[in-house]
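Researcher: Structure for this, please.
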Amino acid sequence: MTTAGWLLLALASALVGLAKGGLAMVGMLSVPILSLAMSPVQAAGVLLPVYVVSDIFGLIAYRRHWDRRVLARLLPGSVAGIALGWATASLVNDAAVGGIVGVIGASFAVMTLLRPPAPDAAPRQADWTRGTGWGLITGYTSFVSHSGAPPYQIYVQPLRLGKETYAGTVTVYFAVVNAVKLIPYAALGQLGADNLGKAAAMIPVAALSVGAGVWLVRRIPQRAFYLFITWALLAVSLKLIADAVM
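Model: Predicted structure, token format:
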């Protein structure tokens, strides 16, 4: 791989680490960035081990800050979504799936920015129906292109968790999802020695970035934190739509 390729891999790995530090939306930029140096399929394969190792550091940082109710309602559907992605891997158009996710995410972000919840409005309850449905979509899109953050956020953001609980819950949730994804990714030949070698070289970058993400989350006011992740959702969603159109 060229020097430029390694620099893009380092940048993508840093974004993964920041995501695992609690800034979940920025991690979605990692595959598109690395796709400038290799195919999107290989980029997803190289970055999955980086995600998994970064998850470990994120779990350590947020081991006391996560919501069991949210995970219980999301994970069954998510595992089914991963299985669906595996079963249809040869039929899937990655860009088309990303475009659909982008439209959904952008619509939610725009509505949230135009009509933010009132300060005294009651948070939405974590229910099984919506949790299972959005979990299915999140698992599927996460399997296809590591783009599960928008559907996840659509379900979780209205619950109005505390910022550290939000960051911890997203970290634990995607740690489980990424661990499950290792099985189909290995079966599809995306975890070969070359990809694993590239991922191993990025572990220090990802680990330092996790620490930076945790530091930022703990210092950003809660209102600013939710405003940031909403704008990040809009930006990433527009990028997915643009990729689909192109």
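Researcher: Any notable elements?
Model: The radius of gyration is 17 Å. The longest helix spans residues 163-187.
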